[in-house]
Design a protein that fits this description.
homodimer, 3-stranded antiparallel beta sheet, DNA-binding
DNA sequence: CTGAATCCGCACGGATACTG
DNA sequence: CAGTATCCGTGCGGATTCAG
């Protein structure tokens, strides 16, 4: 008989683990995401124009796009203050802050 | 007077740090690198054909290419046994093994 | 001020065929 | 067995323009 829910083999476990890690990495993958996160780590919260001036090499499009992805993945929160001119603040979520330990491990490995 | 070797500002430090982290990440970035590393973590050492069968979704080209990059970056060592048919073994270097702590941190964050 | 929309080039990865 | 070599499609990121 062929099981509809076969026992996961060691190979399956390993491959799934690699896949999950890749998924995790994909959330911080992007030309300017680390730079964005670094600025938010340091300042707690930044409005859009500040980030723009802080990372001048990044185009407006990429900044917006990366911020949207970071927001979608729950690493960054976006707050719009209803006023003119518009004002939007980005800050790290708890999950975003939890990345510190990952970066610490990575930095240590890198040294 | 304009210094030829200006003191690095906090901003410079941060940006450089982000750059270094990105460089570190780039070494494990690649569609199949994590899968390769996972197999090597588990088995210690694998020959090319074994990896090929273990990761059938990856094309031969990508497997070779990623292995070359992992070797160039000092994560994996490549040993050729001069015989016919040829036999090549890949194994993790110390630096490659040291990635375990990074993956552990990443996995914990991911949970 | 904070975006959205569009066009474009290039690098990455996939498919296939060939080689020592 | 363990690769090269080649072609090709897609997606990411950059530059520019428009909008609320």
């Amino acid at each position: 008989m062929i099981r509809s829910h076969p026992m996961p083999s060691d190979a399956d476990e390993r491959d799934l683990c690699a896949e999950r890690l890749r998924e995790a990495l994909s959330r911080i993958d992007g030309r300017w995401k680390l730079a964005i996160l670094a600025h938010l780590f340091e300042s707690g919260s930044q409005r859009f124009s500040k980030l723009e001036r802080a990372i001048p090499q990044a185009s407006q499009k990429m900044l917006t796009q990366h911020l949207r992805e970071l927001e979608r993945d729950g690493l960054v929160s976006r707050t719009v203050y209803p006023q003119v001119p518009p004002r939007v603040e980005y800050r790290l979520t708890e999950r975003g802050n939890a990345l510190k330990s990952v970066f610490a491990a990575l930095d240590q490995w890198n040294a």
